[in-house]
Amino acid sequence: MASFENLLYAPDAATGILTITLNRPSKLNALNAATIEEIRQAMQLALDDAQVRGIILTGSGEKAFVAGADISELAALNDINARRAAELGQEAFCLIEESPKPVIAAVNGFALGGGCELAMACHLRVASDNARFGQPEVNLGLIPGYGGTQRLTQLIGKAKALELLLTADMLKADEALRLGLVNHVVPQAELLDFCRQLLGRILTKAPLAVGMVIDCVNAHYDKERNGFQTEATLFGRAFGTEDFREGTAAFLAKRPALFKGN
């Protein structure tokens, strides 16, 4: 089993679900450069492992998913290495966003700054009822650097995203749900079970088709791609898969489909 310093990597062979837990409880799971690199490594490991079919990303403890960036580390950066730090964070988070394997953020408390950005990179977000979301970077004379200005706008719209980015206000879980920032809000004691059930439902579907849907949705926001063309291309490609033949055969035979991801 993979071993990391700042996160826990726990695959479940029976379900195909990998749980990645940010594990810096004394720092409220704050992101530093080492943790971001471990997130990238863990995601790459998961993508390369055929036994991993879906991923839950969460934080240790009951207070924070990720309470933000490690400010002491940020304070030591200059304008040159700060840009590189942002690029490395964006690369790691894009690996999550572009994963053909579904990733659910189980947001178990504060998701601020880089923590909010990390949650937004996941395909779905489920929040505990004590969760709080925000991008407080302007309080420090900074802006989000790991994709926050882009993904927050995509998820909740330009006007509200600008308000939150400019005021640094925090959102409670119910308001995040109303705005569409999260998909569900549940009691904290039920959070991981709910995420496993939700991901389990997704994992009954055709794996290649799930990955294609993720790619098509991402293409809508990619200025270098045409979302409609991507959809048409992948629609055609789906017809060449064994999963398509199994899915249609199962439907016609009125039996559950047994998808193999090929």
UniProtKB/TrEMBL annotation:
Keywords: Lyase. InterPro entries: ClpP/crotonase-like_dom_sf (IPR029045), Enoyl-CoA_hyd/isom_CS (IPR018376), Enoyl-CoA_hydra/iso (IPR001753), Enoyl-CoA_hydra_C (IPR014748). It holds the Pfam family ECH_1. Belongs to the enoyl-CoA hydratase/isomerase family. This is Enoyl-CoA hydratase-related protein.
